[in-house]
Amino acid sequence: MSRQHFDSLDLRILEMLSNNARKPFLEIARETNISGAAIHQRIQKLTASGVIKGFKTEIDPTSVGYQTCAYIGFILTDPTKFNQVVERLLEIPEVVDCHFTTGSYDVFAKIYARNNEHLLQIIHNKLNLGTGRTETLISFKEVFKRPIPILAENVD
User: Fold this and answer.
1) How many degrees, rounded to 5, is the angle at CA 140 between CA 137 and CA 143?
2) pLDDT per position as a tens digit, 43-71
């Protein structure tokens, strides 16, 4: 997708929704002094153009039994096998993010497991893809997570 150009209202809407995806459109309308219908149309336009990709519920992994978060770097012996590796990773529900990267790893994935034993089972039974080797980093604690910054210099 090419870089989009936004006016200040678009940016304000994106900022509000990135901080709270459940914010009611009428509340956004009140805070921006714009009609609810106009806000609704703007959000539909931003969604139709692919800027807004959806509205998601974020669940605390530990509250549903996932105590271990790990990052796994894949060093492929044949980088042309990238699509094959991604297809296999898509079959593993515990893999929540996957990136094609530069640097030490060809593919970098984020995974949640119930505990370290479960992580080890996933690595041995599901991640043995036969396409190279892996390195695993276990996260002790997510220190912070925030939405991308919506910057005023993105205004037309």
Assistant:
1) 110
2) 999 999 999 999 888 899 999 999 999 99
Identify each DSSP E strand in the chain by its residue range.
68-76, 95-100, 107-113, 132-139
Cα(97)–Cα(126) distance, integer angstroms = 16
pLDDT digits (tens, 9 = 90+) for 101-138: 999 999 999 999 999 999 999 999 998 877 789 999 99
C-alpha neighbours within 13 Å on the C-beta side of residue 135: 9
C-alpha–C-alpha distance, residues 141 and 1, integer Å = 33
| Pair 120, 68: CB distance under 8 Å | no
pTM, 2 dp: 0.81
